[in-house]
Amino acid sequence: MKNKKIPVRNMLLAISTALAIWLVGALLIHQQTLSTYQAEDEISMANAISRIDMIFETVNQSLGKASDLYSDRCPEMAHSLRQLTALSPYSRSFSMAKQGTIYCSSLSGEVAIPVSDYFKNDRKLSFSYGPVPAQKTQVINLKRQFQNVEIIASIPGFYFYNDLTGQNDKEQHYLSIDGHYLDRSGQLHTAPLARSNTRTRVQASTNYDYSLVYVLPDSYTWRQYYQASAVLFFVFLAIGPLAGVWVYSTLIKPKSLRKKLEVAIDRGEIQPWFQPQVDTLTGELTGCEVLARWISTSDGIIPPNQFIPLAEESRLIIPMTRDLMRQVRSWLLTEKRHITPGFHVSINFSSHHILSGQIIKDCRHFLNGLPDGLIHLVVEITESEILNDNRQINDVLTQLHQLGVIIAIDDFGTGYSNLSYLQDYPLDILKVDRKFITHLEPEVAHRHLIAGIIDISKKLDLSTVVEGVETEKHVESLKQLGATWLQGFYYGKPVPASEFSRIWLKKTGA
Ligand SMILES: Nc1nc2c(ncn2[C@@H]2O[C@H](COP(=O)(O)O[C@H]3[C@@H](O)[C@H](n4cnc5c(=O)[nH]c(N)nc54)O[C@@H]3COP(=O)(O)O)[C@@H](O)[C@H]2O)c(=O)[nH]1
To answer: Where are the bilayer-spanning segments (predicted)?
Structure first.
């Protein structure tokens, strides 16, 4: 693999995506939980206020009945007030006051207590202890004015405790009257027990002079989060990893055909297949041509015509050829015992590879990685490429020659050129294009052409490989014409390395 950082980076991006989605999910779940409990609190407050209002309203009506009992004479009236207390829900006692002084109580009979001891600021509701101060039981006093008489009812605090119970221990509810706060255990506070960062919610009754104060927790338990946002919880739990997988698969998916090819080269999906080349006279294996095949996991075996042009255009042809050479070399090392002396291995090179000069380094590296003299490396260059008369190509070919590399002109005869270049370049082999052999028998002209090419090559001391040999008649004709080597389906199609080893090397090997 050329670049192992890419999958790690992709993996990190995928994990980050999943974590980011979980983070967003956590924030949304938090918000959802807050608003769920806020809505519940609002409902609970409204219900509590209507229940408390109902208590005060009931007691208020009893105060109306108490006004009918008004008298200046306390002992008789106290008796009647006691009877009324027994019949009135929620009331513990009734007291009568005139000119700012309580003078008669259903509990204590005749008394003289300033009303202001119970009610500050002319309010109608107040807290006090009673009826026995030593017991410290909280009562709530409700006062009502009837002309020049004030009647006061006391209501035990425990009637309110149920409505002061929060959803959990962290949540405190208070009944607030005139700056005092009654909690659910009957304790009276001068301020709600709230930490500075806790949230408080206050709702006042529109009928009576009190309000409810909820001190809410600054955080919720896992259980509460789960109860309030179970659906969101599962949705984000699932979406996080799914998005991560999606990001990862999108990132590793090649974005263009070029990228796809680059990835394929990286993954070693471009593999060398081998086609035998034989001695014309004996039919014995003398070498092979390396032909690229793209073994794609998604599209199967892709032939070179479908990706070599793209590889050349995108300059991926150089890394591709280099990787093919790496695979060929390791195959040759595995099979070295079966390779006969003088075995030729022909590899196709593009003009980019030659012009860049990198071919020299790559061929040297290839040969240095093999035992001395194990094979002859043949560099195949198409005629059309070499025809771009270029001194640079000549220089490169000369240096390759010095390395012991054999130079073959591929597709010879298709360039419609004058043949003077055959003398100018350091060449060794002419590969006769298969179009000349297709009609070898019926087309006499083609037979003459092949004869002419073989004749020229002999005169220039070049060897010939005739491609496209498909029948026995082709073989017979080419024997007569004196071609050096033959290549074609008659002998064998290009096959993967393992098959080539089995069919050819292990059959004829030393
Ligand atoms: N630069 C590179 N070019 C490459 C490489 N690998 C292949 N190629 C070039 O792709 C062209 C198509 O090759 P392929 O489909 O592999 O075809 C080869 C043979 O399969 C085919 N052949 C051989 N014998 C016969 C036959 O009897 N009948 C018949 N119909 N076809 C036959 O000919 C192709 C041989 O090509 P070549 O000798 O190279 O001209 C082709 O131009 C390849 O060069 C690569 O790695 N790099």
So the answer is: 225-251
**Is residue 426 in some structural domain?**
yes
Which protein residues touch ligand 1 with a CB less than 6 Å away?
275, 289, 291-292, 303-305, 308, 321, 324, 348, 350, 380, 410-411, 431, 434, 467-470, 487-489, 494
Condensed to tens digits (0 to 9), the pLDDT of residues 141-170 reads 999 999 999 999 999 999 999 889 876 677
DSSP string, 157-211: THHHHGGGB-SSTT-EEEEEETTEEE-TTS-EESS----TTSEEEEEE-SSSS-E
Residue 201 within any structural domain of the chain: no
ipTM here: 0.94
Ligand 1 atom nearest to CA at 311: 1
With the most atoms of ligand 1 within 8 angstroms of its CB, the residue from 261, 291, 323, 355 to mutate is 291
Low-confidence ranges of the chain (pLDDT < 50): 1-4, 132-133, 442, 509-510
Domains in the chain, number = 1
In a domain, 358, yes or no: yes
Tokens 């405790």 map to which residue? 161
Of 293, 325, 348, the one to substitute when testing ligand 1's pocket (max ligand atoms within 8 A of C-beta) is: 348
Q: For position 383, which CATH number holds?
A: 3.20.20.450
Does residue 503 belong to any structural domain of this protein?
yes
In which domain, by residue range, is 392 found? 316-507
